[in-house]
Amino acid sequence: ELPPSEFMQVADSTWLVLSVVSNGREPPGCQATGVTKIARSVIAPLAEHHVSVLMLSTYQTDFILVRERDLPVVIHTLAGEFDIYREESGECVPVTCDDVSNGFLKPKPSASPTLHPVQSPQTRFCVLTVAPDTLPAIATMLIDVLFYSHSPPWDAATGSQDLDSITFFSFSLIEGYISIVMDAETQKRFPSDLLLTSSTGELWRMVRIGGQPLGFDECGIVAQIAEPLAAADISAYYISTFNFDHALVPEEGIAEVIQLLQQRQESGR
């Protein structure tokens, strides 16, 4: 419904959403959540089969977006580990490999994926949700933050922000569930009784992936972060965007996360 505009850039692919639902078969003591919870079973296998993914964590759950043309490879890759369903008219219908075999080609081995640089701003973030019926009470503030708030200076020469701090605000509305990521200072502008977070009220730090816009053709970007964090049982809230990828990890674990990712980069050289 959006009118054509020279100001709006649109990727050339159509994407499908995968919602990964657990049936309780995780091994005892598995505490990791977010992208690391599905790193071994979904993220790594898709990367190995050269499937590019967009990852979107929300307050309630995690979603993986795959390009529609990659669906046959996705089904063949995940069918051994998962029961796969497609939604038709609001109902879940089982999918088999035979349903999507047309055009399936076994992927050819390729070189190891690029390990992109990671940066960690000092900004502290909150992961929140809002009850839908209270959304009108903060609508004006949301509009102000989304469209009118001051952003840090952008260095056009280098194409990067000063990463001592970073402007990042994410709002998602999926099937009526609202999820918000904002920095701790911005949170103070909202009525505290309307923003809901976990009982521990933890703060998060960010790891931003990519020294320049990543594009959508490369695979293994999410796996670069998810696999080492999964091995260390560290939760991560992951948001892919048009230009960069972002992983949020608990604040107290940021030093360990940076060390793990640096070790992976050094071993990949």
From TrEMBL:
Subcellular location: Cytoplasm, Cytosol
Superkingdom as given in the UniProt entry: Eukaryota
Occurrences of domain Cytosolic arginine sensor for mTORC1 subunit 1/2 ACT-like (ranges): 116-199
Gene3D superfamilies: VC0802-like
Subunit: Forms homodimers and heterodimers with CASTOR2. Interacts with the GATOR2 complex which is composed of MIOS, SEC13, SEH1L, WDR24 and WDR59; the interaction is negatively regulated by arginine. Interacts with TM4SF5; the interaction is positively regulated by leucine and is negatively regulated by arginine.
Role noted for this protein: Functions as an intracellular arginine sensor within the amino acid-sensing branch of the TORC1 signaling pathway. As a homodimer or a heterodimer with CASTOR2, binds and inhibits the GATOR subcomplex GATOR2 and thereby mTORC1. Binding of arginine to CASTOR1 allosterically disrupts the interaction of CASTOR1-containing dimers with GATOR2 which can in turn activate mTORC1 and the TORC1 signaling pathway.
Protein's recorded name: Cytosolic arginine sensor for mTORC1 subunit 1
Record gene name: Castor1
